[in-house]
Amino acid sequence: MWIAAYLDKGEKLFYIPSTTGALYINGVNLQNMNEPIAFYNGAISASTQVQIELVNNQLCLYDEDYNDNNGIAFPLSQCRYVLVGADAFVYLDATSTRYIILPEHHALHAEVMTAIQSQQKGFSHKLLQQKWPVLLGVLFGLLVFIYFLFTAALPSIAMKLITVNQEIKLGKTFYEDFTANQYIDGSSTELLQSFADELHLSEQYPIKISVVDDTLVNAFAFPGGRIVVYKGIIRQLQNPQEMIALLAHETSHVNQRHTLRAILSQLSFSFMFSFFTNGIDGMAKGVINNASQLYSLHYSRSLEREADEKGMELMLKNHVNPIGMKWLMEELKRQETALPESIAFLSTHPLTEERLKNAAAFAQEKTVNARPLSSQMLASWHELKKIAEENVELRIGNREWRDESGELRMEE
Amino acid sequence: MTTSQPRLAFVGRGSQLFPIILVNALLTIITFGLYYPWAKAKKLQFMYSQTTLADHPFTFTGTGIEMFKGFVRAFVLLIGIIATAGYLQYNQITNFGILLVYGALLCLFPFAIHGGYKYRMAKTLWKGIRFGYTGDITELLKIYFTGIFLSIITFGIYSPWFVINLRTYLIGNIKFGDAKFAYKGNGGELFGIIVGGYLLTIFTLGIYFPWWQKKLFAYYINNVSLSKGEKTIQLKSTVSVGSLFVLFITNFFLIAFTFGLAYAWVVVRSMKYVAEHIELEGDYSSLEELVQTQTDYDNATGDDMADLLDLGLIV
Prior knowledge:
The structure holds two protein chains of two kinds.
Chain A: E1 3-6, E2 12-15, E3 23-25, E4 28-29, E5 37-40, E6 47-55, E7 58-63, E8 72-75, E9 80-84, E10 87-91, E11 99-102, H1 109-119, H2 123-128, H3 132-161, H4 164-179, H5 186-197, E12 208-212, E13 219-221, E14 226-230, H6 231-236, H7 240-255, H8 258-278, H9 280-291, H10 301-317, H11 323-338, H12 344-348, H13 353-365, H14 375-389, E15 400-402, E16 408-410
Parallel strand pairs in A: 12-14
Antiparallel strand pairs in A: 1-2, 2-3, 3-4, 5-6, 5-11, 6-7, 7-8, 9-10, 10-11, 13-14, 15-16
Helix pairs in contact in A: 3-8, 5-14, 7-10, 7-11, 8-9, 10-13, 11-13
Chain B: E1 8-10, H1 14-30, H2 36-49, E2 51-53, E3 56-60, H3 64-90, H4 95-122, E4 124-126, E5 129-133, H5 137-153, H6 159-172, E6 174-176, E7 179-183, H7 187-203, H8 209-221, E8 224-228, E9 231-237, H9 241-257, H10 263-276, E10 278-282, H11 301-308
Antiparallel strand pairs in B: 1-2, 2-3, 3-4, 4-5, 5-6, 6-7, 7-8, 8-9, 9-10
Helix pairs in contact in B: 1-2, 1-10, 2-3, 3-4, 3-11, 4-5, 4-11, 5-6, 6-7, 7-8, 9-10
């Protein structure tokens, strides 16, 4: 909307409805004399000189004579600018072929940039206006959130969705996968199973035990009730109470669904990790790689503490002195100093002073209504030990151990 | 009009790029990766806008939505080929099927390069004048398959000639307004640089490596020219081994001591180095007289396919 009037001597007067109410006489802005600037028209790489004005959210360009027919208006919402040094290169439309250069000292330098900025919308623009420490903080917070989502929230949801029967099936699959390249000692397995069957270990899960013919000092549980005990650990245990403690501890991992939780958080974590490092196809690989390493699951300290406690409660329920848990820990600790590399059990079940203390305190606090073990159990235990000691040449110098009655003895 | 020698420069700062990278990472994570094309556009727009020739910035006019559409098309195409392979294998149609699928995958590369060049060049502007790629896909396919065939039967000896043919064709079809780029190199020389550099690097236990890289870079840059009519501008590499070595070492320590947080600064330093070590010689007055001749092109499928195939557009 241009209103033009003619004065006496043929001079032209424009009134432009601008925010500044600029008044032009003979092409000269009376309030704000703008310096001509370079305009590139998108047709050739050479520039022409123009003068500019901000009017009604538009950037208006005039040639140097302010000929009204040559004024071109560009909506600010289409404009964007780039700073090269302090000079603003203002692109006038979406094609970015037409632009002007606003030098730092130009009267409208700051005003044009502020006007364009106020037109910019979008979430990323708002974010980009924040200071980088804020952005870094938000990004870090987001990563922490995602970490907890994947390692805590998602596994918890999955835990609720997986039924006991599904868990048993899942455990069976993992177990079969694991035993595919392990030698299971049939007679030891039978003996330890009958030993365990004398105890009431689990309400929901069928506890099935397998003995692996390996000198590794290790034992662990699969979800759903499968427990694997290595011959190496049987050899190290000195009395049946320690074995009951071991079984009670592992069963508690099963009963409390610790194994399932650990598997889910490990899977979930590797899922997240491979997504960030390799993208979608990396995720699938990560899951496959981790499925084969489930038997080296790590439990958190709180889960270990819980398994100790629930294990000792199970012992009490079975009329077995929970002091066996303390003995088990002491026994393994002694082995740790003698044979550090073969005690795999301790690397997955880290033995802390705190656990030892808790076990001792538990045994002291509770009134124990211990009954002697059945003759069948004792028979199984002795036979089991005999098999485990066979073909063993490995002996560790002088050491102390507890016999069945719990007496501390010293070996020659 | 007298003009001083136009210089290439990168004027951006790490403190400008860093927030862009942070925001891109944030939005890409919370959109489960869907923001990636927009993130790529934002980064390219910044990098172009901070690269200047004769104090005028380049402009990248590609948008997130174009690249998103391109990405979807490229992804569907790739999945389609992989699914066809799976289907044929499942139905025991092996020989012909595998040949068909490998043929299709092999074809993707020249199509990705062709489409990638068309899109990138059409979206690159300087002083409002568009670049453009005018190559013909059938010509490119000819060069590509001849090159692959000859490289295979010569056990790779032909590959430097293949690279030169590709470069000559691709760069020779880049227009800048009414000016035209050209690449003038030959396979024999490149073969010499590659084999000589390889052997010397081994004999000197790796010491020669920076000299070799400098030579390869110079052989690329020094053979590029831009002509408009009779006026020709020749590019010239001024990379020196010492400065290249200093750049590598300082960048390495920057990354190592900040656990990668200095990535933005490393990118900026590297860009500055490259820009400042390419000089323009000859009759550069043509830069003032360029005329808009190239049209816009919005299809980013090739560009995104090149991304998916992890294919750089610089041959």
